[in-house]
Every structure is written in structure tokens, then in C-alpha cells.
Specification:
0% helix, mainly beta, 11 strands
Length: 119
């Protein structure tokens, strides 16, 4: 079992930046794929970014390309999401998730951290 804990959410004005962290514990050997999702009120959950085990492959939602960067530090069992040029539409609860081998089926989830971007 893997446990994930997000941190770094908060409030920021449009155009600002925030950095999220997600620390994994437990069976961290099964965290080959790590991803950030978000869900805004009344909207479906959206995968924002994902990264493979060594960081050589990353993928982003079109809505955040060029503004968000996902990275990971395996020595610290932590994945990061650097969010720049934030927009009000980025407001959501951001969740960290992980999978042993699938880019589409995630088996462990964090509880989420709120990101609010004001105009």
C-alpha cells in the first residue's frame, strides 16, 4: 500500500505561481507513474500532468502546457508540480496519484490540496 500526502496549495492572484508537493510512503517501489489531477466544483476530474519513474517521460493537459511543470525526486519519494502564470480557471482541488505501471489506472490517491486563483 502506498500513502500519498499533498502540500503546497493555497491562494494566489492570477499570474502568480504555486508549487505543490506530494510525498509518498509505504510501498514506494510501486510508484512508477505519478500524476497530478484536479477537480473543480461541478466539473469532472482532469489529469493535469504525469511523469514516469525516472522523469524521462512527462505528459500535460493542453490547458496547462507551457505553464505547469511536473518533476520527481525518487530519493525523497516526492513528486512536484510547479504552476506558473496561474489563471482563475486553475482553481480546483489538486490530487496526487500513482500507479505501478499504467498511465490511465491509478491505484493510490492523496486527499488533495486546494488551489485558489483570484482574478
Amino acid at each position: 500500500q502506498v500513502q500519498l500526502v499533498e502540500s503546497g496549495g493555497g491562494w494566489v492572484q492570477a499570474g502568480g505561481s504555486l508549487s505543490l508537493s506530494c510525498a509518498a510512503s509505504g510501498r514506494t517501489g510501486s510508484t512508477a507513474i505519478m500524476a497530478w489531477f484536479r477537480q473543480a466544483p461541478g466539473k469532472e476530474r482532469e489529469r493535469v500532468a504525469a511523469i514516469n519513474w525516472n522523469g524521462s517521460i512527462t505528459t500535460y493537459a493542453d490547458s496547462v502546457k507551457g505553464r505547469f511543470t511536473i518533476s520527481r525526486d525518487n530519493a525523497k519519494d516526492t513528486v512536484y508540480l510547479q504552476m506558473n502564470s496561474l489563471k482563475p480557471e486553475d482553481t480546483a482541488v489538486y490530487y496526487c496519484a500513482t500507479s505501478a505501471h499504467s498511465w490511465t489506472w491509478y491505484t493510490a490517491w492523496g486527499r488533495g490540496t486546494q488551489v485558489t486563483v483570484s482574478s
